[in-house]
Each structure stands twice: as C-alpha cells, then as structure tokens.
Description:
With 337 residues, this protein is mainly alpha-helical. The chain has two domains: 20-119, Rossmann fold; 129-337, P-loop containing nucleotide triphosphate hydrolases (Rossmann fold, 3-Layer(aba) Sandwich), CATH 3.40.50. Helix content is 43%, strand content 6%. It has helices at 33-41, 49-59, 74-88, 102-116, 132-142, 155-167, 181-192, 226-233, 254-264, 275-305, 320-328, and strands spanning 148-151, 172-175, 198-201, 216-219, 244-247. A five-stranded parallel beta sheet has the order 2-3-1-4-5, with helices on both faces. Helix 5 (132-142) crosses helix 10 (275-305). Bound molecules: adenosine-5'-triphosphate (ATP). The site of adenosine-5'-triphosphate has 20 residues, from helix 3.
Amino acid sequence: xxxxxxxxxxxxxxxxAVGEEETKTFxxxxxxxxxxxxxxQLGWTKPTKIQIEAIPLALQGRDIIGLAETGSGKTxxxxxxxxxxxxxxxxxxxxxxxxxxxxxxxxxxxxxxxxGSSIGVQSAVIVGGIDSDTYLVYILNELAGNSFMxxxxxxxxxQRTALLLRNLGFTAIPLHGQMSQSKRLGSLNxxxxxxxxxxxxxxxxxxxxxxxxxDVVVNFDIPTHSKDYIHRVGRTARAGRxxxxxxxxxxxxxxxxxxxxxxxxxxxxxxxxxxxxVMMLTERVTEAQRFARMxxxxxxxxxxxxxxxxxxxxxxxxxxxxxxxVAGGKMKKRKxx
Length: 337
Ligand SMILES: Nc1ncnc2c1ncn2[C@@H]1O[C@H](COP(=O)(O)OP(=O)(O)OP(=O)(O)O)[C@@H](O)[C@H]1O
C-alpha cells in the first residue's frame, strides 16, 4: 500500500474505473453476494481500478503488491478478498493488517467493520508505543495554568484534538477553515476573553492575530513551511512578555525540523519528560481518543443529515450527545484549565 496522506475529507469518493472495465461489477470480480450487498450499502456502486485489478488475483490466493493514488479504494481492494476468504473458511482469528500509523489502523478497522457488519465480523486494533496525543496531555498538565495555542496541520486534526482535550476536561476550542466566519470569531473571542485556555488552530491563525496572553505555542504538527514556524511562535511573547514554543517532532519530521533550526539559526533544546508519568496517562487518553472518534463520526453524520448546516457546526461544544455519556461515565472533569 502506498503511504497514506492525511485528507481533510477522507470520505471523498474515488474515481470509478474507466474504459472497458467501466462496466465490471463486484460480482464479476468474484465477490460473494453478501459482500456485494455490503458494498452497495456503502454506496460503492462499481469497483475502482485498483479493486478491479487486485480482487480477482487476491481471491485466487495470489500475493499482490498494489500501488494506486491516495483515496483510490486500496483498503477495499484488500479488505474484500480477506472477508470473502473468511466467509469460505470461517475461523476465529483470521487476518492481520499492519499499518504505518495509528490513525490508519483505526480507519482500516472501521472499513472492515462497515463491509463485514452483515456477516458479524469483529476487528481489534492494537497500537504500540506512547502516542504523541499522550505527550501533548502531559505537557498541558506540566504547564497547567498557562494559555496555549496549539497548531495542527489539518482542519480534521484540529477538530479531533479539540474534542480529545475537551473529553479530558480541558477547556479547548478549535479555529479552522472549515468553520464559518461567525464560529471562528466566536472561538477566538472565547479564547481572547480567557473563557477557554486552549485554542487549537490551523495556520489560518498563525498570521496577524494579536492575542496578548498566549503563554505557550505548541506545534503539534510541525509546520511544512519553515517560515510558518516563525509566524506561529510569534503568537506568544508579544509586547515584551515572555513565552514558550514547543514543537512535536516525529521520525518523519526530522528534515523539516532541521530546516527550522537552520532558518532561526538556533539549536532547540529537548523538552524534558518523565516517561513513567506519560505512561500513566495512556489509559485516560486512549479512552478520550475513542470518544473523540465517536464524536467526529456523530458530527459527520449530523452534517450529512442537515446539509444547510454544513461547515457551520464545527464547534466541539456541538458534540453534546457523546460528551454527556463521557461526563456521566468514567472521565473526570479537571479543574483549573
Ligand atoms: N468502489 C468504490 N466506490 C465508491 N467509494 C469507494 C469505493 N471503494 C472505496 N471507496 C471509498 O473511497 C474512500 C477512499 O478509499 P481508501 O481509504 O481505501 O483509499 P486508499 O486508496 O487506501 O487511500 P490512501 O492511500 O489515502 O490510504 C473511502 O471513503 C472508501 O469508503
């Protein structure tokens, strides 16, 4: 599978196959009826090109390396043959899918469950290591009492992280380009008035905004253009005040990070963390992530149902349904944020 790219709209439908293959159906490829119906229910009227090429070979049990552009239906190209084979030889533990990122693991699991719901398929997601979400929560706890601007690279991650933090009891609010102007202003004003201590933003907020009391800027996703680093960190330490900037650097970001250090002519020191303390947060963060995913899904469905509302309801405070479940459940509200 090609490396995934983060989409702002992951549900965008891929292009159907063209030419003589245009008329092929999932049934023609050898997919069993119950799975053809599942495709139908997902609105997959015809297989995509990679699905047309991969599925018949996979159904023969052949090894495949499939390359196709992002969003072209590669997940279905391997999930359908797996489910088809499972139906032929039912058993408890059947397939292991390895992915390069946690997000992709959850996304693929959801697709397996959507395709396999009518045949009772269950999938489990196992992720390892300490996740940067957990480090973010650790840093917010360590620096509690400050006001934060957290930058993410996409609207989707901004929204997701805002939901995650709210589920953990932080007063976080998003600001991104998929929100209407009035919602954006509303978020900004709540943050400016100190009614919210964490503003999560894409680069729409990195330039020009003058909010005097930002104590800490967090680059949760490293900026792709090193100049944006300067704009982002310039949101703190304004008018003679002091401020802090913290940048998350994953193994994929080293080159971008070195470019930033080169641009600013400075080696940035490592932020000290106590791994044992970070570990202790894992369980709560994992649960909050699960709720955040549910809320994002709930919100996406609501948007589909009420088209006129599209793009206008991105404030995380709209996700009341799930939040009530969280508040009434195990998650504790945290004071002082
Ligand atoms: N035959 C089809 N018809 C319509 N939609 C489809 C079809 N197959 C897959 N999709 C939808 O297309 C979207 C993209 O599919 P998928 O995530 O598998 O792409 P991908 O090729 O794996 O992309 P990436 O490389 O970015 O991970 C998903 O929302 C999926 O539900």
